[in-house]
Amino acid sequence: AADKISLIPQDFFAELCEQIIQHLNHKIPGINTAELCQRIQTSGVDINIGDLAKVANTLSFLFSTAARNNLSTEELVTTLGSGVSTLPKHAVQVIRHVWNEQGKAIAVSEDARDTAAVGQFVDMKWKLGVAMSSDTCRSLKYPYVTVTLTVADPSGQITDKSFEMTIPQFKNFFRQFKEMASVLETV
Q: PROSITE patterns this protein is in (predicted)?
C-alpha cells in the first residue's frame, strides 16, 4: 500500500486518515471512498477506487492496532519507520499529526468491535416506477419499487446495494418494518 499512498496528495491523505479515526471512534458510519476517489482523480491523480480502498483498509488496521496496543505517537512513528516498505515522508507526518491529535480517543471496547464487525446501515432511498414497455412486450404497465440501501461494511467502506420489488413484495417489506418499529417501542 506504500506505493499507492505516495500517489495521494497530502491534503486528501489527511482527510482519509481523519475519516478513518472518526469511523473508529463511531462518529461516522464509514469512509466514502468512492466520493474521495472521485475528488482525488479530479485533482489530476491517477488512482482507482480499489487501490484507495486498500489504503483505507491498511490505515484502519494500523490505527486500530495502535489503539489496541496503546501506542504513543513516537512508538507508532518508530514502528512505521521499521517496516519493510517505507512510507512517504508526507504520509508519516500526517499519521503522526492525526494520531497525536485524535488517536487516544479511539474506543477499543469489545462491544464496539463486535458491533462494528457486522457493518452498519447508513441510509435508505426508494422510488416508485412503472415499466411501460420493452423490446418483447408492448404494454407492460408494471409498477415496481426500487430500494437503495447505503451500508458501511466492517472496514468502513460505504457501498450502495440496490434491489427492485413488486408492489406485493414492498407491502410485505413495509409490514415487517412496522413490526420491527412496534417491537422497538416496547424495549
A: COMM (PS51269)
